[in-house]
Amino acid sequence: MTSLNETPRANRLHIAIFGKRNSGKSSLINALTGQNIALVSTHAGTTTDPVYKSMELHPIGPVVFIDTAGFDDEGDLGRLRVEKTAEVIKKTDVAILLFDAAAASDNPDFSFELDWKKQLIAAKIPIITVLNKVDQLDQNHAALEKLQQEIADEFGEAPISVSATKKEGIAAIRSILAATVPEEVRRERILNDLVRPGDVVMLVMPQDIQAPKGRLILPQVQTIRELLDSRCTVVCVTSQGMDGALKILPTLPANKLSDDVRQIPAVIITDSQCFKQVYESKPQGTLLTSFSVLLAASKGDLPALVEGAEAIESLTPSSAVLIAEACTHAPLTEDIGREKLPRMLRQRMDQTFGEGSGGKLHIDIVSGSDFPKDLRPYDLVIHCGACMFNRKYMMSRISQAQLQGVPITNYGVVLAYLNGILDKIDLPVCE
Ligand SMILES: Nc1nc2c(ncn2[C@@H]2O[C@H](COP(=O)(O)OP(=O)(O)O)[C@@H](O)[C@H]2O)c(=O)[nH]1
Ligand SMILES: [Mg+2]
Fold first, then answer.
1. Domains of the chain
2. Residue whose C-alpha is closest to residue 388's, from 136, 161, 217
3. Are the C-beta atoms of 381 and 3 separated by less than 8 Å?
4. Which among 30, 95, 291, 302 could bridge 297 via Cys, Cβ 3.0 to 4.6 Å?
5. Cα 326 to averaged position of ligand 2 atoms, centre (Å)
6. Residue whose CA is closest, atom 28 of ligand 1?
């Protein structure tokens, strides 16, 4: 369990280390983190399931390293591990492709590495090549140089040469990592351009069963942090407290507003549940958006998700809908995915096609890694907000659906659409 004081894993830069068994992946993570957290062993195939290690990595900030099993693993179990390693690609922001200098100088066969390079490039993941165990070629500079040249020829760039066990060359990896952080990840913020420094921003946060006693839910915490970073004044209210708070704020008459003079509050961000009430009592000129739509924008391609929601118009009682949850345990959203959404979709069918039509709609619900490889049997995919996953993960599912020609949307956007408020929401602009 992460504590409230830690950056959630979903918001960290995901750096995965890929390489053959025994190339020193676990040792390298230990060297980079300065801790002995990864299991290092002379016995090949010691790391089985991917291991995640979160840390602050100067100068990047919060990152998570992912230690994987060797991609040359063998046997039935080995193949299973390689599959799990391949799954990691979907969440990886930056990949370190690791070579074992001692092994490669004896046998310079890079077929595994080249195959993985191809997969990483296909997934648009930046690759940093690292040549480990160079201490073993201390006495043989010619061999080391030859190896560096061979890797440069095959992989486009000279590898960073390091010794994980002697902790040499590690700083170079850190600075190259910092320079490689993809722009998209840097932009993984919730509010984008919706707010400006100095804005008064009101958050309407009903405290219901979704919020554990004494705590706030994650999107709210993240939004408050971002607003404070953006030098905004944050006013937090419940739905009942909103009108009272608006009365004590010096709301401006509409004719005083301009591009430079923003309403007070400039923006209201509300929980979707009370959207209607907030919409009706908000001052003129105040922008209005919802937490779930902001979250959708930070996790995925918002225009694609909006388009996906509009595909509801083409559903008929003989259509098939897939509802997908990212977590296997999703107590907070369970009722949305398993009860609320199916009920709303069926009601809509009843209204459009007559009583009883809703029951015919085919709805499958999957969770975790059960997300089907072939989405084509479905007319629409509705994904959860993916609050525990990073943008990369969500984007890989969105692009899979797009490649297969299946509209995809998510809980927040589809609920806004079904409630008839999507067109009243001010959407953050995403480039
Ligand atoms: N000489 C030397 N040995 C290393 C280095 N890095 C790792 N090793 C050794 O290589 C073996 C495999 O390391 P490990 O980190 O478990 O590899 P993994 O299977 O890729 O995770 C261990 O015996 C390590 O001590 C290095 O830089 N130099
Ligand atoms: Mg290992």
1. 9-186 (3.40.50.300), 200-294 (3.40.50.11420), 302-424 (3.40.50.11410)
2. 217
3. no
4. 302
5. 27
6. 133
